[in-house]
Design a protein that fits this description.
The complex is a heterodimer of chains A (561) and B (511). Chain A is mainly alpha-helical. Chain A contains 22 helices and 4 strands. In chain B, the strands form 4 sheets. In chain B, strands 1, 2, 3, 17, 18, 19, 20, 21, 22 and 23 form a 10-stranded antiparallel β-sheet that branches. Chain B has a 5-stranded mixed β-sheet with strand order 8-9-10-11-12, with helices on one face. In chain B, a hairpin with a 2-residue loop joins strand 6 and strand 7. Classes of the chains: A mainly alpha (561), B alpha+beta (511). At the A-B interface, helix 17, helix 18 and helix 20 of A face helix 2, helix 3, strand 19, strand 23 and helix 7 of B.
Chain lengths: 561, 511
């Protein structure tokens, strides 16, 4: 039995890996993976930097399925050729109109953007507005982002953005780039001359041999480059061992969250199949795949905490990861207590959808491990406030998922009263967990705010929406207590009340965009979310109609026995 | 009868229907508040929702409802434990908030490096009105959000009456030039160049219009009372050659234009380009003069011997707001037939004369002296490696607590406030001059309600926990009797109630 399940699991795991997707490359840039770079306020492997840059510039971690490191090396080896290739993302309609760019295209070359007079002019205006401390609109923000992409591309291609030389004697605490090592540059003054020119020469060899596809020379020189980097660091008094580099390389290679959603989805399909066919083997395989998804998800979360040095719940991407983890976590506990597959089924789907969103919308949900604003730098409060409150979202998301199943049963299923009532209880349990966590989390937020800002409650939109979401669920609980909301009402309520959570979670940061929780602000995705919400409300409305039509008196007497 | 009415009232206030209604009402008002905030800013949202009377009414209704609901279950039984605890928690939180509202204090305190202070500027604004020698010395709180014209109640023996016409929370000044016998000379200057055209009045003796900073250069207005002084101004004029405070000097190395008013209504000018004197000569109305700074030219459009600057304020238009926009107040002071209109910026003092009687007006922030003082030893901004992004703001302070005769050094930074004698001092901001931080700004708060709020919070969460997960234990005895179907050991009480209602309904239908 174990063998059989293990086999299915093994095949699934293989399918989910990225190995099969890798394009055949003439030279594998792997030996460079221990080369470090200082970027965005921390030290990371160059592979992370190149992947993040790819996301910034093209909107995809793997543009045209190329390895990011390989592509960046290609840029460095031949900037002139690559500045004419079209890969810089520009999808914003009104910005395209503003700078008279081709409306049909999504990608533009660096050269054509750099030479676009309208873009230059518009940038100057935006810059002036920014200096006047005026609020920028979406088009203006997008212009700045586009400039950022262009700047990042040229920074990499010309080498100035590659802060891979750990010499910080002249520049305060900042590493320098190979360009700074060239003769006459001040930032490398005082550096050991041999190390300086060795680094420059070996870096040149690495780039050159990558271009000419001399595999063995590339491998050796890459290793030498890493060794020289370590020597320079030692001479500057920087200790590399304090950085969790191995963990990060492993994290990048594992791509845990992209793997987890595939496993969750697979588990969902297995369990669904098992539910129809009543096959115990498929069901067991489903549970096994689900558990391994959860394991990788957890591992990914732990690794990310380790790399970041803090609980990873500081932006939208990280909260989606954490909430989807919470969904699986609560579903597992409740599923074991009630011995119910429906928890696992719902959690697998909800979690998979959330993780797919997180993995595929990098321009909206930024997966980069970023530094924190000063006010957030408290692991204690991040853990107890942010993680508590977002865990409540997880419980509500689970209730939302099972609520849908419950509605489906009302609309189409031929389930017995007992079954309906039982599923309803599962929804209720999840809501209970959510309510207590949301109440505690909101209050803890007040305690933290009192501790760091000096006020317990200040009607900040994020606080207010957390309260509204809580009030929404309280309405349901009171309505249930009074007997106004029966089973069907609870099912509908669990779906509708989730809108409050959605607003507190996504809406405040991405739609309202005001208030003190500005560190999580972002933009984008509104039209998709709105469509999904309307579609979902349509579903609820349709089921309600159907439910009432089947038995006009059901609204009142649905539960008589 | 009375008993019946009060019973009915109590039933109404303790009803679940009212509870659900209030919760939904509260939630919708809050949602509206956040949308208003997104569209019109936090201040308007606060005024129209969170701090509005009707909102306080909803909260009051909620607390009455919560309290009555808890009392209506008297005498409490074991199964009410969670319910009563939860509702007690809510009432405590609301009570703590009331206490904060009534006695809480919030203010700011800026301390420069190496200096000591114990002075906190509170958020409350006041108008101080004095009529010296007439026994009038009154302080009126000003609420910049309540922009309503109101009469100021002064003592019955007051020789003047006063009215606040307008309060602008974020104001910018607009000035008009008026002819007035008591005024000073003024020159209307026109400057043209690549950036367009600009007209500005220079007014002698005016704190703002005597020394203007206009893009490429500084413009200074000087007044020579005698030929000797004119001679000095035209030929010498350097900071090191005079100690006379009436002469102002531009920043060294900048472009500057001096407009010099001489006796008999004559005008002269001197130009500086990058700190070096270039041209000079008499200045005639309506003639263009080259400046030598790129293609800029200037001319005098108007020259009047007696003008005053009438400064008014208007609200800053939306989207143009800045942190440092001052609040401004417009006051009318009246005596007999004479009415004086006065505009004051926050922290501004003015003395006006009305029918020969001086009236002192001061628009100020409430101040409070802390029972201890802080000396800022050092202010540091730690940054993430290799970037300009701040990691933390840290102030090293020396705290002097005279009551306890204690002096100690502490670090105040984000997420590490100083708590002393009921006050909490937080790192809030800093001030910089030429890119170097010179002062640390602390937020200071006193919140007497916080302990009650925390207690209420703990009780509330405990109550919810007991209600959800302690039911089984609390209603253990009852569960034994009720052998209900499938999964119904949860929430037995409600279930029973619902069920008995259902049975009734079914029976009714059968009938």
């Amino acid at each position: 039995m174990i063998k059989k399940t293990a086999l299915i699991f093994f095949i699934a795991f293989l399918l989910c890996g990225n190995a099969w997707a890798a394009k055949a490359q003439s030279v594998n840039p792997d030996p460079l993976k221990y080369l470090l770079i200082q970027d965005g306020g921390r030290v990371k492997p160059v592979s992370t930097f190149f992947m993040e840059s790819m996301l910034v510039i093209t909107g995809k971690a793997r543009f045209e399925n190329e390895d990011p490191t390989a592509l960046c090396l290609a840029w460095i080896s031949d900037p002139r050729a690559y500045e004419q290739k079209r890969f810089i993302l520009l999808a914003h309609e009104s910005l395209k109109r503003m700078i008279q760019a081709d409306l049909k295209r999504k990608y533009f070359s660096a050269l054509e953007l750099a030479q676009n007079q309208e873009f230059q002019k518009f940038l100057k205006e935006v810059d002036a507005r920014q200096k006047d401390r005026k609020k920028l609109n979406n088009t203006e923000l997008e212009a700045l982002r586009l400039y950022g992409r262009l700047d990042r591309f040229y920074g990499i291609a010309q080498g100035t953005a590659l802060k891979i030389v750990p010499f910080n004697k002249v520049s305060k605490n900042a590493w320098i780039s190979p360009v700074d090592l060239m003769p006459g540059h001040e930032l490398a003054e005082g550096m050991d001359v041999k190390l300086r020119f060795d680094f420059l020469a070996v870096f040149g060899t690495v780039v050159q041999t990558f271009k000419t596809k001399e595999k063995s020379t590339f491998n050796t020189s890459a290793k030498i480059l890493v060794a020289i980097q370590e020597k320079i660091a030692a001479s500057s008094g920087i200790n590399f061992s304090k950085y969790p580099i191995r963990q990060e390389i492993f994290y990048n290679a594992l791509a845990p969250f992209a793997r987890a959603w595939k496993l969750y989805l697979l588990a969902f399909l297995f369990l669904l199949t098992a539910a129809f066919w009543k096959n115990i083997w498929i069901e067991r395989a489903g549970f096994f795949v689900f558990a391994s998804g959860f394991l990788i998800h957890t591992l990914g979360f732990v690794l990310r905490s380790w790399i970041a040095g803090r609980p990873p719940v500081s932006n939208m991407y990280e909260s989606v990861i954490w909430v989807s983890w919470g969904v699986v976590f609560f579903a597992s506990i409740l599923g074991v207590i009630y011995r119910q597959k429906i928890y696992i089924l719902a959690a697998a789907l909800v979690s998979a959808i959330a993780l797919i969103l997180a993995s595929s919308t990098a321009t909206v949900l930024n997966p980069q491990i970023a530094t924190l604003e000063p006010v957030l730098r408290s692991n204690f409060w991040l853990t107890i406030h942010v993680m508590t409150i977002t865990l409540s979202y997880a419980a509500f998301a689970l209730a939302f998922g099972i609520g849908h199943y419950n509605l489906y049963l009302y609309g189409w299923g031929k389930a017995s009263k007992e079954k309906l009532r039982a599923v309803n209880l599962y929804v209720y349990r999840a809501i209970q967990i959510g309510v207590i966590l949301l109440a505690a989390g909101t209050i803890l937020g007040g305690v933290w705010a009192n501790y760091s800002w000096g006020r317990f409650w200040g009607w900040d939109p994020k606080e207010v929406w957390a309260l509204i979401a809580l009030l929404g669920y309280l309405t349901i609980l009171h309505g249930r207590h009074a007997g106004w909301l029966r089973e069907f009402g609870m099912a509908v309520g669990s779906v509708i009340a989730f809108l409050g959570v959605l607003m507190a979670w996504y809406g405040v940061n991405f739609v309202l965009g005001v208030g003190l929780h500005s560190y999580g602000f972002g933009g984008g995705g509104l039209s998709y979310i709105l469509t999904a919400v309307i579609f979902d409300l349509g579903f609820v409305g349709f089921v309600s109609l159907r439910h009432l039509q089947v038995s006009p008196t059901k609204g009142k007497l649905a539960n008589k026995q | 009868m009375l008993q019946f009415i009060s019973y009915q009232l109590f039933r109404f206030f303790s009803s679940l229907k009212l509870a659900v209604f209030t919760i939904v009402l509260l939630a919708s008002s809050l949602a509206a508040g956040t949308i208003i905030e997104s569209l019109h800013g936090a201040q308007i949202a606060r005024d129209s929702v969170y701090h509005a009377r009707w909102f306080a009414f909803i909260l009051t209704m909620l607390s009455i409802n919560v309290a009555c609901a808890a009392l209506s279950r008297l005498p409490w039984k074991r199964r009410h434990t969670g319910f009563v605890i939860t509702h007690t928690g809510i009432i405590l939180i609301l009570a703590g908030s009331l206490l904060t509202l009534a006695y809480g204090k919030n203010g700011q305190m800026a301390v420069r490096v190496d200096q000591t202070s114990n002075l906190v500027l509170l958020d409350h604004q006041f108008l101080h009105l004095q009529v010296p020698g007439k026994g009038i010395d009154a302080l009126f709180p000003v609420n910049p959000r309540k922009n309503k014209s109101r009469h100021l109640p002064l003592a019955p023996w007051s020789p003047v009456s006063a009215r606040i016409v307008e309060v602008i929370p974020k104001a910018k000044s607009v000035s008009r030039i008026l002819d007035d016998d008591r005024g000073a000379p003024g020159v209307l200057l026109r400057i043209t160049g690549m950036m367009g055209e600009m007209k500005e009045w220079l007014v002698y003796g005016d704190p703002v219009r005597e020394h203007l900073n206009v893009g490429p250069a500084e413009i200074l207005l000087l007044y020579a009372t005698s030929e000797e002084e004119l001679n000095f101004l035209m030929n010498d004029l350097a900071p090191e050659k005079t100690s006379d405070k009436k002469f102002k000097f531009p920043e060294s190395g900048r472009n500057a234009l001096y407009v010099i008013m001489a006796p008999q209504g004559k005008l002269y000018y001197r130009l500086k380009a990058r700190g070096v004197f270039t041209q000079k000569g008499p200045l005639f109305k309506g003639v263009d003069y080259r400046t030598g700074w790129m293609d800029y030219k200037f001319s005098v459009e108007d020259y009047r011997s007696n003008v005053v600057v009438d400064r008014e304020y208007e609200p800053v238009s939306r989207g143009e707001e800045r942190e440092d926009n001052p609040s401004a107040i417009h006051i009318l002071v009246e005596r007999k037939r004479d009415v004086k209109s006065v505009w004051l910026e926050i922290n501004e003092k003015k003395t006006i004369e009305i029918e020969g009687l001086p009236v002192r007006l001061n628009f100020l922030l409430e101040r409070e002296s802390l029972p201890f003082s802080l000396k800022l030893l050092k202010f540091d901004i730690a940054r993430y490696e290799g970037t300009d992004n701040p990691m933390s703001y840290e102030s090293q302070v020396e705290v002097n607590d005279p009551a306890k005769q204690k002096t100690f050094t502490r670090e105040i930074k984000m997420n590490r406030p100083l708590k002393l004698r009921g006050y909490t001092v937080y790192q809030a901001a800093f001030q910089e001059e030429e890119g170097v931080p010179v002062a640390s700004v602390f937020a200071v708060a006193k919140d007497p309600g916080i302990a009650i709020k925390y207690l209420g919070s703990i009780i509330l969460v405990m109550g919810i926990g007991i209600q959800f997960f302690g039911r089984r234990w609390l209603t253990r005895e009852r569960v034994k009797h009720v052998t209900t179907t499938t999964s119904a050991s949860f929430n037995t009480v409600t279930r029973d109630k619902v069920k008995s209602e259902e049975v009734e309904l079914v029976e009714n239908v059968k009938k």
